[in-house]
Write a structure and sequence with these properties.
By secondary structure, the chain is mainly alpha-helical. Helix content is 79%, strand content 0%.
Length: 222
């Protein structure tokens, strides 16, 4: 690690919190406080996704109860209407849970950067994942789109500056592979959580389709 990069990475512990925030949102200054600021912003989005998941879960339970009620009364037509509504809600729930898990993986990796100083190789996949999550959530959770875009831009700026300071360059094949790995792992865990969390529909009703964040993005970009 070059001396110039080491100086940029240093975190001035005696600096007031407000001053550290100001440094985090403008290009010059130490890299670590800006990276920490980005992590806090991602964690805030995770909290908002958790809140959205809870809202959808409450709707899920209410609609599922209506399906069961209609089904027990042998009102299959009415049950299917509710089942279709539930299918759409569960697609949104799946996307949000998937996005939340992907963001959580990004936070874990960025926390590791604080220890290893491996900024460029970690931020490349992180930015890629953020872009995919942002695209996937655009129609489901639009309020997160702008914030995730700003966080991605912030991380891109840190990554470029770190690369210039350290002389490191990105291997884009590796970056894309790592980003896809994060998304795939999140999709796998999300699917398991969906199976554990949501009861199956009664036999004979419309099924709930499975759509992961990475699948949705791939479909939209193809």
């Amino acid at each position: 690690m070059s001396e110039r990069f080491a100086k940029k990475w240093e975190n001035r512990r005696n600096e007031p919190f407000t001053a550290r925030i100001r440094e985090a949102v403008r290009p010059p200054g130490p890299l670590k406080p800006r990276l920490d600021f980005a992590v806090r912003r991602i964690e805030l989005q995770i909290q908002k996704l958790d809140q959205a998941t809870e809202r959808f879960s409450q709707r899920d339970k209410a609609i599922f109860a209506r399906i069961v009620d209609a089904y027990t009364k042998h009102d299959t037509a009415r049950a299917n209407v509710f089942a279709n509504e539930l299918a759409e809600i569960r697609k949104m729930e799946r996307l949000i849970i998937n996005a939340r898990l992907a963001l959580e993986q990004i936070v874990l990796r960025l926390r590791t950067v604080s220890e290893l100083g491996d900024v460029v190789s970690t931020l490349g996949p992180a930015v890629g994942v953020l872009r995919t999550v942002r695209t996937g959530l655009a129609s489901v959770f639009p309020e997160a789109e702008n914030e995730l875009g700003e966080i991605g831009n912030l991380l891109s700026g840190i990554m470029i500056e770190a690369g210039q300071s350290s002389g490191m360059t990105l291997n884009f094949d590796t970056v894309n592979e790592d980003a896809q790995k994060i998304l795939s792992e999140a999709a796998t865990v999300a699917e398991q959580k969906i199976k554990e969390k949501f009861p199956e529909l009664p036999a004979g009703l419309s099924g709930v389709p499975t759509t992961s964040l990475s699948e949705k993005t791939s479909t939209e970009t193809s």
